[in-house]
Amino acid sequence: MSNVAIKDYVLLMKPRVIWLLVLAAVAGYVFAASPRVNIAYVVELTLVGLLSTGGSAAFNMYYERDIDAQMIRTRNRPIPAGRVSPGNALIESLVLSILGFALSYLWLGTIPTIFVVLGWFLYAIVYTVFLKCRSWSNILIGGVAGNAALLTGWTVAKPLDLEAILLSMAIYLWIPAHIWSLVIRAKDDYSRTCIKMLPLEMSEDRAMIMVALLNVISNIYMLFLYILFLRNLIGLIILLITAAWSSYYSVKAMIKPSREVFWQMFKASSPVLTVFLLIGMVLSIIK
Ligand code: HEM
Ligand SMILES: CC(C)=CCC/C(C)=C/CC/C(C)=C/COP(=O)(O)OP(=O)(O)O
User: Fold this and answer.
1) What job does the chain carry out (predicted)?
2) Residue 230, pLDDT score
């Protein structure tokens, strides 16, 4: 198999995206296990996370190959570009996913595996197959898969509890601004497809105000969690700076709305969640 082909089979896993899902799962574990963190579980969660989220992403690319061909952002993906056959992509998806589920059960146990399978099913089947072209509520239901990623890690160390749910809600509340900021910026692209997204069902001005506000609400919620659970001034200041940077784009969008500022908001979304998870892990271990 040539290097090009291997690269395309890796691209089917959406590596630019799933690394943060794996970090969410590892962070869930560290939040629950601190200060007694078992590196073996961190490695196992990383491998299970890569396999299961990568398998779900490959299934999404297989199932949505016709939609991907319609959007400028996605038409050069391996299947619409003709570099990987749909059949091979489906095989990769199923092999990765089943291996991920099996290793999760062997290494992590029943409850974490339930969250892995739940996350996979919510994203690959409920969101991708049933809702994406049927209702703008697709991300409100599919977004629970984001909770599942963090809860997979948490339940390796502790039973599910209110703290776990509140922490996982940082991801759930982060998703709408994360995806809808991209939808606003790529409105013409999305409008060519069957995909339903709330910003496409309302005036652009109202969509911009809604997403700008959701972005600020998501940032405030993450700061609230730090104050509630971590109470570390340095960590709070670091998150505050990151959240302020992200919220700056919301303020900019409110003053002078433009599609470009929503691209900047989208690109700022992952760093905010990354800082929240990373600093949260460090503070959990040292507190
Ligand atoms: C229903 C839930 C979600 C939807 C619909 C969604 C949608 C998207 C889309 C359309 C992209 C652009 C992909 C591309 O063009 O390659 C993206 C990028 C990304 N997503 Fe999400 N996402 C969701 C949940 C999540 C979650 C839960 C995480 C992590 C915890 C995440 C992490 C990322 C990252 C790291 C990127 C790359 C961002 C960048 O390029 O700067 N997403 N997402
Ligand atoms: C535990 C587990 C397996 C969880 C699954 C996690 C999860 C929430 C995955 C969503 C991340 C992702 C690849 C979104 C792309 O959305 P999209 O398909 O709308 O993006 P696209 O338009 O770029 O294809």
Assistant:
1) Converts heme B (protoheme IX) to heme O by substitution of the vinyl group on carbon 2 of heme B porphyrin ring with a hydroxyethyl farnesyl side group.
2) 85
255 lies in the same domain as 270: yes
178 lines ligand 2 (CB under 6 A): no
Q: What ipTM was estimated for this complex?
A: 0.96
Q: In this structure, how many other beta carbons lie within 10 angstroms of the beta carbon of residue 191?
A: 12
103 alpha carbon – ligand 1 mean position (Å): 25
User: Is the CB of 120 within 6 Å of ligand 2?
Assistant: yes
> pLDDT digit string (tens) for 209-240?
999 999 999 999 999 999 998 888 888 999 99
- Please give the Cα distance from 102 to 168 (Å, whole number): 24
- Cα dihedral 56, 176, 266, 30 in deg (nearest 10): -60
188 and 74 housed in the same domain: no
Nearest CA to ligand 2 atom 9: 123
The pTM of the full predicted model, rounded to 2 decimals, is 0.96
- Domain boundaries, position 178: 161-287
Is the domain of 181 the same as that of 225?
yes
